[in-house]
Structures are given as C-alpha cells and as structure tokens.
Design goal:
Structural class: alpha/beta
Shape: globular
Number of strands: 14
Strand content: 15-25%
Largest sheet: 8 strands, parallel
Helix content: 25-40%
Strand order of the largest sheet: 4-5-6-7-8-9-10-11
Number of helices: 12
Order of helices and strands: EEEHHHHEHEHEHEHEHEHHEHEEEE
Length: 335
C-alpha cells in the first residue's frame, strides 16, 4: 500500500466561538492510501487542547508503515507509533474507505451496522443571550431536531443564554460548557436550565466530578475527560455518559470499542465531532447507529463542504450507500 498525507484548511461560514476561543477556519490532516487500483481517503482535525497540530500529525504519519494488506488492521495497529490520535484516526478512516472500495460495500455494512443513527444536534456557539437566540431562530427551518448550546462565558450569563434560546424554540436543548464551570456554578446553574443533558461542565480530571454526578439534576456527559478505551472506566465515576470523537479516539475501531465498554458500564454514548469536512464527518455517520445522541454538524458549519456525500435528511446525517465512506473530494485547499 502507498500512503500519502497532507494538511488542508476548511473555512467556516461564520466565526465559531467556545469558552476557549474563536476560529474562522480549521486545519485538518488528510490521508490517502492506494492499493490494487483503489484509493481510500481519511480525515481528522488535530485538537490543540491535546497538544496536537497538523504539523505533528504529518510528522507522525511519516513514521507509519502500512504494509501490503488493507484488511490486516490488528497488524497495522500493532506497528503504529504512540500518540497523535487525529493522525491515527485519519489513517483508520482511509483504511476503512479502502476496504469498502475493494469490496464494493459501504463502511456501515462492513461493520454490520444500521445505516441511520439519531438526529444530529446543531451547535449554537457562544455569544450574548440575544445573539444566541437570534441564531437559533435563524436555523429554525433547516430541519434540525435538537440544539447544542455552547456555554461557559464566565460572565454570569449562562442561565440567561439558555433561557433566551428556550424562549424562541421548542427543540430539545443540550449544552457544552467546555470545562468552564466550578462545582458551585454547575449546581447553581443546572437546576435553572431546561436541558436534556450537560456536557463537560468541569475541567477534565476535576476532583469534584463524582460529587457533581451524584448531585446534578440532569445527566452529565464528559468529553475532555474521555479520549480512548482506557478512559471509559474512570468516566463512569464522574458522568452518566461519554462523548466519543473520532479525532480523540484514533478512529472507528477504537470508537466501537469505547461504545461497548460504555454500554457494559451503564453509560450513555454520544458521538461528537470537530470542525471537519464531509470526509471527517462520514466515518462518524457510518457508526452513528451505535449512539444515543450525535453531534455531527462539523461539515454543516462550513462555508462549502469540499467532500460532499453525507446526506442531511430529517435532521439525520446519513452515510452514503456507495462503497467505502462514500464521499468525493472537490478541490480541498492543501498546504
């Protein structure tokens, strides 16, 4: 097999803001693997929060020896260097895409899964309460079935943000605080919020995590606390559910392992994403049927998706029925 890797940049339709900062574009790493006349493609977004970048991902991929059998995933995995989960995910996705193209099957069928998972949430990024309400109104006719509110403004207005959005929509709401609250703030704010669940209210590893789980009036999901299979058991002590992201886990195979471990521990499971093109979102869509909740709007946040193929129908991100991941590139800006 011949492996190539590159950095690409995707442009957001509007500035995206969370408690840690804002961005207008995002760098992703893309992998292509050629074998027997077919080429598999994969993508993932390195996460700065975990000290990963496109440059570190490309350096990691330069060390990878993929061998000559795209179906020998255990052997390939055993040879990989440690670290760099986004690069690992892009490689994993490209191998699954290649397998599908060689066999003529979409990835969800290769995995024995259903095609359709839960509706994806749409993210209302962090802003003042009125601005968030206006943006919720703006997407009312786009077919989304639930909204995810970015909170953690550190200005005492998070309850007002939720109330402002609730005043303009009847859709189910969830929130993502991105580690910005203390235990006291969480216990003060959450009883005042009409939410389905709250994602990562406390900093990762915070000693009050188990106490918050015990006292919280609604389910707590963790994101920054949960990367790979090795983290799932500890998360059961501090949360009711986990947010799996392929760029954190290292790809489809590890994500599926995490789902089964979470189920055994009685945890709920959601599938999240980064700002990625359809090439990065498609692998999640192929395994979404395993999840209780999905947040797969990364490609929908872009000014234009350079890798179309994921279908947004009735609020659901549906994978293509074409072989592999089922997306095709059209002029991604590479660097």
């Amino acid at each position: 097999m011949e492996l190539k890797a590159r950095k690409a940049t995707v442009q957001l339709a509007e500035t995206f803001t969370i408690s840690r900062g804002s961005e207008d574009e995002a760098d992703v790493v893309q992998v292509e693997i050629a074998h027997n006349g077919a080429t598999g493609y994969g993508e993932a977004a390195p996460i700065a929060r975990y000290s990963e970048s496109a440059a570190s991902a490309l350096s990691w991929l330069e060390q990878v020896e993929v061998g000559d059998d795209p179906f020998a995933l255990d052997e390939i995995e055993d040879r990989l260097p440690p670290g760099e989960h986004a690069a690992r995910a892009a490689l994993d996705h490209a191998l699954h895409d290649l397998q599908g193209k060689l066999t003529g099957q979409p990835v969800y069928k290769l995995l024995g899964l259903r095609r359709v998972g839960p509706p994806t949430s749409w993210t209302i990024w962090l802003g003042d309460p009125d601005d968030m309400a206006r943006r919720a109104e703006k997407i009312a006719d786009r077919g989304f079935k639930r909204l995810k509110l970015k909170l953690g403004g550190r200005d005492g207005l998070d309850v007002e943000r939720v109330n402002a959005v609730r005043a303009v929509t009847d859709l189910p709401l969830q929130c993502d605080v991105n580690e910005a609250w203390s235990l006291g703030e969480a216990l003060e704010y959450l009883p005042q919020m009409q939410l389905e669940y709250c994602e990562q209210p406390l900093p990762a590893g915070h000693p009050d995590g188990a106490e918050l789980k015990r006292r919280a009036p609604l389910p707590i999901y963790v994101d920054e606390d949960c990367h790979t299979l090795a983290d799932v058991v500890a998360c059961a002590e501090r949360a009711h559910g986990i947010n799996i992201k392929l760029a954190k886990s290292g790809g489809i195979r590890e994500a599926v392992r995490m789902v089964h471990a979470a189920r055994a521990l009685g945890l709920g499971v959601m599938l999240g994403c980064m700002v990625e093109s359809g090439l990065g979102i498609a692998p999640g869509a192929h395994i979404a049927s395993l999840m209780d909740h999905t947040d797969l709007d990364g490609n929908l946040l872009l000014a234009s998706d350079p890798w179309p193929g994921v279908e947004f129908v009735d609020g659901v991100q549906r994978p293509s029925t074409r072989p592999g991941l089922g997306v095709e590139g059209r002029g991604v800006q590479a660097a």
